[in-house]
Design goal:
Enzyme class: transferase
CATH topology: TIM Barrel
CATH architecture: Alpha-Beta Barrel
Strand content: 5-15%
Number of strands: 10
Oligomer: single chain
Catalytic activity: (4R,5S)-dethiobiotin + (sulfur carrier)-SH + 2 reduced [2Fe-2S]-[ferredoxin] + 2 S-adenosyl-L-methionine = (sulfur carrier)-H + biotin + 2 5'-deoxyadenosine + 2 L-methionine + 2 oxidized [2Fe-2S]-[ferredoxin]
EC number: 2.8.1.6
Order of helices and strands: HHEHEHEHEHHEEHEHEHEHE
Helix content: 25-40%
Subunit structure: Homodimer.
Keywords: 2Fe-2S, 4Fe-4S, Biotin biosynthesis, Iron, Iron-sulfur, Metal-binding, S-adenosyl-L-methionine, Transferase
Bound molecules: S-adenosylmethionine, 6-(5-methyl-2-OXO-imidazolidin-4-yl)-hexanoic acid, iron/sulfur cluster
Shape: globular
CATH class: Alpha Beta
CATH superfamily: Aldolase class I
Radius of gyration: 18 Å
Number of helices: 11
Number of domains: 1
Structural class: alpha/beta
Length: about 325
């Protein structure tokens, strides 16, 4: 049963179970709705880095913090295409292009990004973009260019949001997600833990995601990568138990969704990552860099896949084979 009417009390009860019970419940759901043993490998590329006018307290790309990130303008098309080709050859099935923009503007750079989307789509990769806020018309143009998914994270709860970002509102974020959904683009939206939020904030964010009109097809769970120069530089690292609670709760609430073990893997031993896969995570970002921060290198991930007997997941498999189509976009429908 796919539900979009979860109550906050239900989500709270799921999240606060003893951690091993929570993981085993999530693992049971994962086994029914997803191909266990398959993990999607995705690649990120920052096509426009740094100099962002926003004040996201976690972000090394905000112009107002001095983080040492080397800012650059929109990369040349050929460089982006070559990077996508390398990603595909190395086994990635999704390629996500990120830009340090507050929002998309209708200018030449956007026209160029549309061209990049078209070219990367032509390689047979799931093309994803994360370009900040957008309007309905811009979403339609991205869709027409062949965009498969759009990433736009809620990041944290509505209650915590103003402590982390003041240059836009939670409703701005939700509106963008609505435009993405309306254009028929696959929705990727998740958050970050380790920002100084409470369990209630984490629960509230998961509740918001799981009670959208339709579940996001993709929910990235990021552990804060504390970056020197940002206001959150001194935040303690999150523990695996916290990641497990987030991943497992997301898997239980949104059984058909890709749950992505995103930022924060660099510090995680394979044993901890294995627990995250058991709890329902079925995607990682591969390659030495996320957007601007380090990620485990390719060989280490290859070894992890071999050790755990994991297989890379094929592209365009949002709806798992064998599962009864759950009518995404409509809710709630019998599984
Ligand atoms: N500028 C666009 C936006 O904010 O939507 C797209 C790029 S932005 C870097 C994409 C996401 O990366 C953010 O929403 C946030 O969740 C994540 N992120 C940024 N810095 C991070 C950090 N230091 N640790 C973990 N996640 C981070
Ligand atoms: C997401 O949720 N995590 C990725 C992707 N979506 C765009 C980005 C993580 C960025 C981590 C900080 C950095 O490397 O700059
Ligand atoms: Fe800009 Fe996105 Fe970083 Fe916020 S998260 S500062 S909007 S690049």
């Amino acid at each position: 049963m796919l539900r979009t009417d979860w109550t906050l009390a239900e989500v709270t009860a799921i999240y606060h179970q003893p951690v091993l019970e929570l993981v085993s419940q999530a693992a049971a759901i994962h086994a029914v709705t997803q191909a266990t043993g398959e993990v999607q490998v995705c690649t990120l590329l920052s096509v426009k880095t740094g100099g962002c006018p926003e004040d996201c307290a976690y972000c090394p790309q905000a112009a107002r913090y001095h983080t040492g990130v080397q800012a650059h303008k929109l990369l040349p098309d050929a460089e982006v295409l070559a990077s996508a080709q390398r990603a595909r050859d190395a086994g990635s099935t999704r390629f996500c292009m990120g830009a340090a923009w507050r929002e998309i503007r209708d200018n030449k750079d956007f026209d160029r990004v549309l061209g990049m989307v078209e070219q990367v789509n032509g390689l047979g990769l799931e093309v994803c973009c994360t370009l900040g806020m957008l309007n309905e018309y811009q979403a339609e143009r991205l869709k027409a260019a062949g965009l498969y998914a759009y990433n736009h994270n809620l990041d944290t709860s509505r209650e915590k949001y103003d402590d982390i970002i003041t240059t836009r509102t939670y409703d701005d974020r939700l509106n963008t997600l609505e435009h993405v959904r309306k254009a028929g683009i696959s929705v990727c939206s998740g958050g970050i833990i380790g920002l100084g939020e409470t369990d209630e904030d984490r629960i509230a964010m998961l509740h918001t995601l799981a009670t959208l009109e339709a579940h996001p097809e993709s929910v990235p769970v990021n552990a804060l990568v504390p970056v020197e120069g940002t206001p959150l530089a001194e935040q303690p690292r999150v523990s695996v138990w916290e990641m497990l609670r987030m991943i497992a709760t997301a898997r239980i609430l949104m059984p058909n969704t890709m749950v992505r073990l995103s930022a924060g893997r660099q510090e995680m031993p394979v044993t901890e990552q294995a627990l995250c896969f058991l709890a329902g995570a079925n995607s990682i970002f591969s390659g030495e860099k996320l957007l601007t921060t380090p990620n485990p290198d390719f060989d280490a991930d290859q070894q992890m896949f071999a050790l755990l007997g994991l297989k890379p997941r094929k592209s365009f498999k949002d709806v798992p084979e064998g599962a009864v189509l759950m009518g995404r976009g409509k809710a709630p429908v019998e599984a």
